[in-house]
UniProtKB/TrEMBL annotation:
Active site (UniProt): 93, 141
SUPFAM superfamilies associated with the record: Triosephosphate isomerase (TIM)
Pathway the protein acts in: Carbohydrate biosynthesis; gluconeogenesis; Carbohydrate degradation; glycolysis; D-glyceraldehyde 3-phosphate from glycerone phosphate: step 1/1
Protein name: Triosephosphate isomerase
Lineage: Archaea, Methanobacteriati, Methanobacteriota, Stenosarchaea group, Methanomicrobia
Record has Cytoplasm as a keyword: yes
NCBIfam families recorded: PRK04302.1, tim
Similarity annotation: Belongs to the triosephosphate isomerase family.
Keyword field: Cytoplasm, Gluconeogenesis, Glycolysis, Isomerase
Summary of the function given for this chain in its UniProt record: Involved in the gluconeogenesis. Catalyzes stereospecifically the conversion of dihydroxyacetone phosphate (DHAP) to D-glyceraldehyde-3-phosphate (G3P).
Subunit comment: Homotetramer; dimer of dimers.
Any one Gene Ontology molecular-function term assigned to this protein's record: triose-phosphate isomerase activity
Pfam families the UniProt entry points to: TIM
EC number, as in UniProt: 5.3.1.1
Length: 222
């Protein structure tokens, strides 16, 4: 099996800020090196540069705005994310929804700046729509399972399968991730067996007493 991509979103959890972000990034770097898995993190914007500077793991922004340099206030400029060392960016996370037009513009901006794009979706119809925009990844996450501790892999494998099929029918070059409640190697294994290339997750790692132990479990069945 090709090593899966495990992307850990630190969100705005206090357990994912400052020294905690360093602890998670260091654990991700260690487990990635030992296992051969690709483990990335999506920290707060203010942590993008420290994380990309200190660790040899892919660092993703949690969001970008579809703007170009100029007179905007309080926006996330894609160029700034790039120069902070980000490898890629989430777009349209369930907790940061965008219009379809904005999603398209963000994917375009990411492509122009050589940032990998991960467009989050909530069902197979939106997965198909996202795939038509040609991002690098579509990440299917049923919103009701996000942060629930109930794994999409076990509670709703059908949505993963339908999204993989929907994305493949539109553009087979677009890779699929899945997320919501992912917490173990078994969850990752099921997701990969259903045709995804990895997982997007947060709370099980970020809020863990020992993030390194959870990361080791996540890659244990690959
Ligand atoms: O970005 C990550 C997802 O929203 C999943 O979050 P979760 O692993 O806490 O369910």
């Amino acid at each position: 099996m090709v090593s899966p991509f495990i992307l850990v979103n630190l969100k705005t959890y206090k357990e994912g800020m400052g020294s905690n972000a360093h602890r998670i990034a260091a654990a991700a770097e260690t487990v990635a090196r030992e296992s051969g898995a690709v483990i990335g993190i999506a920290p707060a914007f203010t942590e993008l540069h420290p994380m990309s500077h200190h660790y040899a793991i892919p660092v993703f922004a949690q969001h970008i705005d579809a703007i170009t340099p100029g007179a905007h206030t309080g926006h996330i400029l894609p160029e700034a994310v790039r120069s902070a060392g980000a490898r890629g960016t989430l777009i349209n996370h369930s907790e940061r929804r965008l219009t379809l037009a904005d999603i398209g513009a963000c994917v375009e901006a990411a492509r122009r700046l050589h940032l990998e794009s991960v467009v989050c979706t909530n069902n197979d119809a939106t997965s198909a729509a996202a795939a038509a925009l040609k991002p690098d990844y579509v990440a299917i996450e049923p919103p009701e399972l996000i942060g629930s501790g109930v794994s999409v892999s076990k509670a709703d494998p059908g949505i993963i399968e339908r999204s993989v099929n929907a994305v493949r029918a539109v553009n087979p070059d677009v890779k699929v991730l899945t997320g919501a409640g992912i917490q173990s190697g078994e969850c990752v294994r099921i997701a990969v067996d259903l045709g995804t290339c990895g997982v997007l997750l947060a709370s099980s790692v970020v809020k863990a007493e020992n993030p390194e132990a959870v990361l080791r479990d996540l890659v244990s069945l690959i």
